[in-house]
Amino acid sequence: MSAVAGGAPPAIRDGRTALGRAVRRCGLDRPVVPVLVTVGLLCAPPDSAGPGGHSGVTPADLSSGVLVVWCALGLLRDRARQRAGGRLPRRALTPRAALVLGAPTAAFAVTTVASADPAASLPGFVRYLQLFVLVPGAVLLALRDARDARLLCGAVVLLALVEGGIGVVQAATGTGASYQGEEVRAVGTFGALDVMGMATAVAYGLVIALACGLVPPAGAPRWLRPCALGSAAALVLPLALSYSRGAWLATVPACLLLLALRGIRTTVCALAAVTAAGVVLVGGFGVATHELGQRVGSITEVSASPDRSVTDRYTLWSAATDIWQQAPATGVGPKGFPEHRDTHAALELSSGSDAAGAGVPFQREPLLSPHNMYLLVLSEQGLVGTVALLGAWGALLVCALRRLADARSRGAACGVRDCGAAATALLVWQAVDFLYGDIGGPSTVLTALVLGLGTWWALSPAAEEHAEGRQAGGDLAA
């Protein structure tokens, strides 16, 4: 009777208390947990039964939706607590952040309504909203401090190591995606229908690991720097075996930015080490010598190229420009490029790209985008969408660089400067990669998460509140 009057029995209350302590000790009560779960679900092989090579919704997409709902409920809970007079953490969704995220939202809505078929453009509007507004905004809210940011960085590095290891095995055993008639292209668990997936994940992990090795957190254990630098060096091989020219070109300026933060001496030594390693691996052991040499040489070749994809890419770029001239202000609407492609493309454009290997039978994949994010937005959303989206990305990059420069001027080599270096380098990587690629495939959710990390560093007050190095010591190691 007393147990009923006093609520749950003492044993149950003690169990709940112990469970709550264990959950808090493990950090499972933190909003960053859905972010980490989303990163982990990217390892799940995609379903290749749907149109376009995979089903429309992947486990990572579902998890990103849960993340958005989780953060929205958190905002409502904080608002209710504010009405009750409770104490709130400092708001991450500042007016500046609301403007950066809100401008693309308004532009996406305008271009969708202005398209010739708004109903057909609606799925594209939802996809753009998910990748460039909702998920980055949710990550901005979920990362409460530097520890959360380091957990996300660690999860991305772990994903890169797993996918890179699988990719190396695929290249060594001939079980990867098809490349010039041989199944030697490393694609990880993303499969032959998303050949950019593993390359993107590995490049992200390489940049983060290099940032952690060059600018380690204050008080970090001694083994952290060699492990981080060793991870970055290990990820070079799967990145090379991915044969992704866009990922290669984007990784160079991102790594140069990180090396520049350490000074000219470190930059020269690092470049010498990379060159020596390349000579040993390619020249000494002959690791994919012919394929890599031909792939590098095809970057600048347009006519009489042994790589047909280069000619197709330039042809698609020209078609995207012509499509934009058809509707300069608002474009032809999201998802409208494939419908207008054949009308504006030259005759030499291929009917599709070959996809095979890594468990996928041979098939022809249609060319649904110009393989240039800027031209894709320009053709589908005109000047309205392009100015809004590029303005938001430019604001993120400028704010990130300014905050990183402020941290250096204060001598804050501790604190969140390691997170800031990684986030800024990732924004640079993405800005360059979008010159040679665009959104598409299951791995695109990872791009949204990385943009969220950059948004947190550029716009969140927490990135400045945690600039003291005492906290940073064992976060990543833990």
From TrEMBL:
Coiled-coil region: none
Residue ranges constituting the O-antigen ligase-related domain according to the UniProt record: 232-390
GO cellular component annotations of the record: membrane
Pfam families membership: Wzy_C
Key word Transmembrane present: yes
Membrane topology annotation: Multi-pass membrane protein
Entry GO MF terms: ligase activity
Residue ranges of the TM segments: 56-76, 97-116, 128-144, 151-172, 192-216, 223-241, 271-288
InterPro entries: O-antigen_ligase-rel_domated (IPR007016), WaaL-like (IPR051533)
Localization of this protein: Membrane
Alphabetically ordered keywords of this record: Ligase, Membrane, Transmembrane, Transmembrane helix
Chief location category: membrane
Protein name as annotated: O-antigen ligase
Organism: Streptomyces qinglanensis
